[in-house]
Amino acid sequence: MRFRITIAALLGVAVCFAGTLDVSPAEGKKKKKRTEELSSYDASLPQPDPIMPSLTPQPPLGDNEALAQQTGLHTANKGLGGIDVSHYQGNINWKEVARNSNLYYVYVKATEGAKLVDDTYHRNIEGARQAGLKVGCYHFYSPTANVSEQFRNFSSVVKLKGHDLIPIIDIEHRGKAPLGQFQNRLKQFLKLVERHYGVQPILYTSRDFYNKYLSGPFTHYKYMIARYHEDIPELRDNAAFVMWQYSATSRIRGIKGNVDRSCLMDKYSLSDILLTK
């Protein structure tokens, strides 16, 4: 559940910069202004405690001793682990993934903002569930997309029939609006989701993002908190910190490359993230 900056995007910025070297002062000012407008897009803004991969790959799922040493999971449910996936993981061999005895749940990216649909969503949901895993989905929330259009994108794609887990709303960017406006728009979106599906979604964010932008108005939600560090993250208040995403560099058989990895915290069980049938 991470925003990614592509190589093409970085090259595009380099080209724009290079193009300003040999122009008239007036043209230079226009291009500079246009570049500033482009760079003001909310996803490029610095975020507190950015959700970035740790430098050292984590041990394969199931290696509890190494897991405890590297992540300090002595106070978390080492055996109740899960992963989240999207099109970045490519074609997944779910039968091989499900052979891991410590993997209990899987969250699959469904949508992002007002228009994007992950093209592996349906395949991953069906494949993971057929392999015997508990499955759910997540939506990557955009603070700048129209609330109604963003909700329509999510609800038109996601039908909870065939899902086991409470859906997650991934909140990683604040945007440039005042804090009150950001919070009100998010409240509107969450109310639409809750009213439509009849369940309060789980929220995903980083520790610092929660403490700075969500603490207070959103304390009553359950959370998956991302922090790629050996210390368990601490929240400012008594929010229900149900899951900890502690690695973005885990490896597991059946998936090529890295995958996000999380676990349930001690006082919570799988039933706390399951949909009520």
Please give a structural write-up.
- With 277 residues, this protein is of the alpha/beta class.
- The chain is built from eight helices and nine strands.
- The protein has an eight-stranded mixed beta barrel, surrounded by four helices.
- The protein starts with 6 loop residues before the first helix and ends in a 12-residue tail after the last strand.
Order of helices and strands: HHHEHEEHEHEHEHEEE
Percent helix range:
25-40%
Strand-residue fraction? 15-25%
Distance between the termini: 27 Å
Number of strands: 9
Q: What about the largest sheet?
A: 8 strands, mixed, barrel
Number of helices: 8
What's the arrangement of strands in the largest beta sheet? 1-2-4-5-6-7-8-9
Q: Whole-number average pLDDT?
A: 80
Overall structural class, as computed from helix and strand content, comes to: alpha/beta
